[in-house]
Records
---
Amino acid sequence: MTELRLVTDDFAAEGPFSEGSPLPRRLPPGRHQIPANVVREHQRQRLLAAMAETIAQQGYASVTTTTVSELAGVSTSTFYKHFGNLWDCVLAAYVATSDRLCATIEEACAECDPREDPLDVGIEAALSFCVEAPACAQLLCAQAPLEASAVAAARRILISRLAAMLRRGSGATAGAAQPPGLDERMIDATLVFVGSRIATMGPAQLQELAPELVAILSRPRQAA
Amino acid sequence: MRSEARAAAREALPVETTAPTPDATVREGEMEGVLHVVGELGFRNASVRAVLEYSGGHRRQFYDHFESLEDCFGQAYRTWIDRLGVQLLEAAIAANGWQESVRAALVKLFQFIGERPTIARSLFVEVHVAGGEAMVEHDAAIERLTLALDSVRVELGPDDAPPESTGLFVIGGIEACVCDVLAAGETRRIWDTLPELMHLAAGSYLGPEAADVAHEEAQALLERERTELEGGGR
């Protein structure tokens, strides 16, 4: 199953998952010394990871609380202890994955050599994220159903965050004023583009898109 | 030349022109019904019963025409996306110049969305949920529109050529914008995006100067003719 890595490293190091076992994996059944809050958090992470995996494999058409619960290794009654309904779980998975993508890009840009183009670094980091966690990437790129309006709103928030990063990244190389909303359109287009590429070429080759994507995103700003 | 190109577009995307039989009319109604129901309720909540409540007719008749709800949606999707594709290409061909063609096609698309928002939600949003045959048709339509956008490459020198995937990127951006507006149920807001989308298309292919011009021209067009354009195809 895809690792969402939604449990922080500190949490993992202090908890019962520090013996090298990948997260999220089902906890040992029966009596154990694991605190109830840790079990609960672990179940939640498994459900979020299972949601991303199910949507990546089956699409939105056939995802149900039952299929997600089965993949996560919990009962449906446990599912409903964590989430009010299917869409609450999708939303939680979307928000957590968005946060992780943004943190990955920000971290890469903060650590990069000042001589490097931040747009290059940001795109490379985002595509690496997609390669490592293709189900999460598909969750972020996929068009949500009409009934999942909160997920659509979360997508708009992600687009705004990434557009702000794009503005910062491209500002270092250009500086020309852009019409309001253009960066959001570029990011929206990028999500659709990457989503279609995952479907057609598979996640492994995504990194090859980096130079072309940088060229596409730079072109409206390049001096003639 | 334009009429030849229009004829070629019609050839590529055939539309029924013969008088429909009563059975074909019922089938057509069922196809419109499935798109309406999916656009209204979402693909996950659609049912044959809901389609028949919209279109009339009997369940048995429905299953004479289609194997399943999914089959009906797939066939309806192909028919409607082909028709819309012809309309967009005709609008593009009737305009002079690449930028004007792109703008004319966007205006036609926005008029369709304004007139048939529920059908548009099926065609652009819920198709991603449905997947299957409809998604294959969706991808084919995207490819045709990408080829049409790419026609500007013949006017550009090798040094000015945009990246290979530019067309797919621009069409993806337009579709994402349409989906956003449709999902929010704010179809009139789609007109506000015309300058941004023209900037995206022209900038991605031709660079920033052309993008600024395309943006300004689209804004000027909206200031002059927005009310007429919104009422366009009615």
Note: Residues 124 and 210 of chain A are 6 Å apart (CA to CA).
---
Amino acid sequence: MSGLNRTISLAARQALLEQRSFWRSAEYALFTFALPLALLLLIGSTTATGDLPHTHVEGQMVFVPSIIAFGVIVAAYVNLGAKLATLRHDGVLKRIRTTPMSATAYLSGVLGSTAATAIAITACVAVIGALAFGATPRASGLPEIIGGLVLGVACFGSLGMALSSVARSAESASPIANASYLPLAIMSGLFDPAFSVPHWLSAAVGVFPVRALAQILEHGYTPAAHAPLTDLFVLLAWTAAGCAFATWRFRWH
Amino acid sequence: MTNTLAAEVAPDLAEVAADAPRPAPPTIEVRDLTMGYGDRQVLRGVDFEVRAGEVFCLLGPNGAGKTTTVEILEGFRQRTGGTVRVLGVDPAAQPARLRERIGIVLQECGFPRQARVAELIDIWRAYYPNPLPLADLLALVELTEDRNAQVRRLSGGQRRRLDLALALAGNPDLIFLDEPTTGFDPESRRRCWAAIENLRTLGKTIVLTTHYLDEAERLADRLAILQGGRIQVAGTVRQVARQAACDTRITFTAPRRLRDGSLLPPDGLDVVVSGDSATCVTCHTASALRELLAWAHVNGLGDLDDLSVENPTLEDAYLQLVSEREAQ
């Protein structure tokens, strides 16, 4: 088996083991899914039907993809960051280092499992969004949806990895993750499609990847939303920054 | 590990072990190894070697540099100076190649919490180019019945045995065991010792660090005592005990006349009577015994009751060495 094939097959096996372990802790898995779904139903039932104020965009075409973005961030950033911090704290990462398993294969496997979780959350939100609120993606919007998911997982996954190295203890990883993305998520209007902020704040929020991901996914639902080219660059830049930081600072023990 | 299990597993293991080329001795060679963290010098010129197929035990008080030494051998730490060869490779230069041929049991190292025993061992096998069969590994550490248990539900002893199974997954030539029986009950310790002895019969080289001197005495072919960043003494258990200049103790039941002072002990022997028993501490066991028995015969005491000869234990030697060095 060539080196690359072996890396890929090892990463796939690792991802499978991680994914099985994830579903085995039923409570953890349940609430990882419950949070975005509960928010979806809550926002859906409190948002007035019809166009958003001063636009020709229907509310559900914004809040459904926003919650998808939220789900991706929770799975890839919060959960992955906390998981890696715990694995490090428990000595599992150190144990991996005692074997010939390559860092690339191992971390790809962990990230692959994270991607699977993110996709499962996306599917749940999308299906409930369609059935309960009639929000379906545009047929021509699939590239935005798929590209947004791939880039979203890559970007927030690399930031989650970076976060796990910043946190000094396993316990502090979750609070740090929540404190860093939740304010941005609120300012970005993820939980309220009619949310508006002053110009300067909107510009500041636009520099971060939270709204960028949401807007790319929104464009997959409705063409009237903001064209996402700038957002694409924002996500790419944060992915690069996250990868660079994680490579520089990633610790095995 | 029971003998029946060992016998079941041994043929397969021996076959695989025979296929691998035996490394030319010594398996580990350490010359003038130094290690410092900033101003603090932890290792000040450590020399020792470990021969192929032996159990080598590294002893020393806490903070002596045992773990640092082992981590340098494993390729986890970069040394400050000196020469180190492990299986013919410099661990600092080629840690990845080395790791295919060594197994490591770390101190206090966790598992992924939700993984099951067999699936964890199985993925560990996938990490190595020539792994041992899963069934053999499970049998070797007596976890066959717990193969489907989640790791977080295992007892302390079971976890430690799983540690060992993971370290052996790649069929290593050299195994590092860092305090493998800490926290074990006596029964689990014996099982672990039997497993380690079984590994030795398969031709594996084992480097063991431990706090338990009886463990070292039982398992080690050779040992070294590390203190103050240097090897203070090295050799077989008997050599180390002798180097510490520990005396043999001869005890017997004190005859009544010796107890009431009407009979004096033989000249030149240091005999102390305490209660019913008499103890003679000497460096010259054979001649002291001869003299005692002749004295007993001449004085009509017959054979001395409950006569016993105790060689110095490793513990005596260790404590004497360590306290001597600390006093200096």
Note: The two ends of chain A are 31 Å apart (CA to CA).
